[in-house]
Amino acid sequence: IIKVSGISTGVNGFKNIGGNYKHYILMRYGQAEENIKSGLSYIKDVEVKYSIPNKVIIEIEEREPVILIPYLGTYLLVDRYGYVVEVVKSLEKNILPEIKGMKFAGYEIGQPLVIENNTTFEDLIFLIDTLTKEDKNDNLKIVELINSIDISDKNNIHLTIDNRIMVNIGSIEKIDYKIRSLKQIYYKNIGDDEKGFLNFTTGDYPVFIPN
Q1: How far lies 185's CA from each of 78, 134, 142, 177, 189, in Å?
Q2: Which of 161, 179, 128, 162 is nearest to 170 (CA)?
Q3: At 22, is the pLDDT very low, low, confident or very high (cuts 50, 70, 90)?
Q4: DSSP string across 140-173
Q5: What is the Cα–Cα distance from 25 to 108, expressed in whole angstroms?
């Protein structure tokens, strides 16, 4: 961070103060902040302040990847606001759910994806937030078992669980209920080695069809 900021030791601390009027009032280094944000894709926000007599304080807020998007033989790590945080060629394991069906026009590291349908992306983030919330105070965890989420059709969103259970949760309508039901069915009604298809779109109650 220090290297990217452009700040050097042995320089008069007042020399780098600048930017807009707030930067001058708060003795912040506007150019150093811009250097850090543009040079490090994981940085969401940063403040670089001069503290008399001889200290520079750097406070950062990092972007946290929440989804993984396969793209032309690579994987894009993307945060909840659609920013591409990192691009990797391979993964030892899927640390984040792999997203299928996301349509966008290219990417630039450190910049938001130009997504074809923002509503679909918002639904996806809402789904992930709800999954995380439902796991938080429950002994039955499901987020860590999700391999992929297919949002090609927002009315038929598909999850792959533990590489053996395909789930059609339909739309995000009543998603809290669907996730709680999914967890109960997965842990209490489906065998440890059983494979199959769980469908939430057939009526009032989900239906499980074993392979």
Answers
A1: 30, 15, 11, 12, 5
A2: 179
A3: confident
A4: S--GGGEEEEE-SSTTSEEEEETTTEEEEEESST
A5: 34
How many domains does one find in the chain? 2
Tokens, residue 38: 């543009």
Confidence (pTM): 0.83
Q: Write down which residue in 11, 44, 62 finishes a domain.
A: 62
| Per-residue pLDDT at 38 exceeds 70 | yes
DSSP state at residue 28: B
Q: Kindly state whether residues 51 and 71 are assigned to the same domain.
A: no
Contact assessment for residue 81 and residue 102, using Cβ atoms and an 8 Å cutoff: no
- Sign of the alpha-carbon dihedral angle for 169, 170, 176, 178: negative
Query: Which helix or strand (DSSP H or E) is residue 38 part of?
Result: helix 30-39
Whether residues 168 and 93 fall in one domain: yes
